[in-house]
Amino acid sequence: MRFSFAILLPILIFLLGCSFVTQDQQITQKKDVSYPEKETTELFYDWEIEVIKDVKCDATANPQCKQDELKAIKDVFSKRFPAKEVIFDRYGEENDRFFINATLEAKEYLEKMNFFEDMVNLSFQYHLIIDDSNQKKPTSQEELLLCQFKRDCLKVYDSCCGCSPNVKAKAINRIYYNWWINKLNCEEILCTLEDMVHWTCFAEPDCINNLCILEEMEKT
After folding, report:
1. Rounded distance, CA 78 to CA 90, Å?
2. Together in a domain, 152 and 102
3. Which domain holds residue 120?
């Protein structure tokens, strides 16, 4: 059976149109990420986020251009978050990155978004901010886990080298973080890369019934 090109052309256009609609829907769904609910109105900047960008301008012709380009990116980036959820800290020495202090909710929002369509070619590094003034030693294992809010809980490991098939992660209250790290005594430990790890390595800390626990992340 033979078909003329005039008959096939509308069918092909229709199929291509369906494909584009599907892609647009996927993009829309990816951008439609709600901001995490806040447990308290008080702002705690628990994370330093290092935003790294490969700046393309010719610094030999205009030494200021790298910082100008980075500033423009920083301004767009900051507007993606509710007011005061992120605050600018500083630029990197090479003007290829900037640092912001962020709430837990801002960090989680950025991780869910993964990237913004107008913020491509960025990479992020997350650094935990610990207030040394309120660090203490727990009086019991139960006290180690007590919490009031999600931000109270941090994920730590039973080993200096993080997760491995025989090492689990656990959640503890952040005020005992320094005590936990010092207890491990990891100054001269050499670590090797492990191919398999325990499921707790991919879990997220939360405060459930006033106890810090790890919750397994939903598979996407």
Report:
1. 13
2. no
3. 47-128
Does the residue 159 lie in any domain? Answer: yes
Residue 116: its pLDDT value, please? Answer: 57
Quick check: pTM over 0.85? no
- Which residue(s) pair with 172 in the sheet? 154
**Mean pLDDT of the residues in the chain:** 79
CATH label of the domain that carries residue 64: 3.30.70
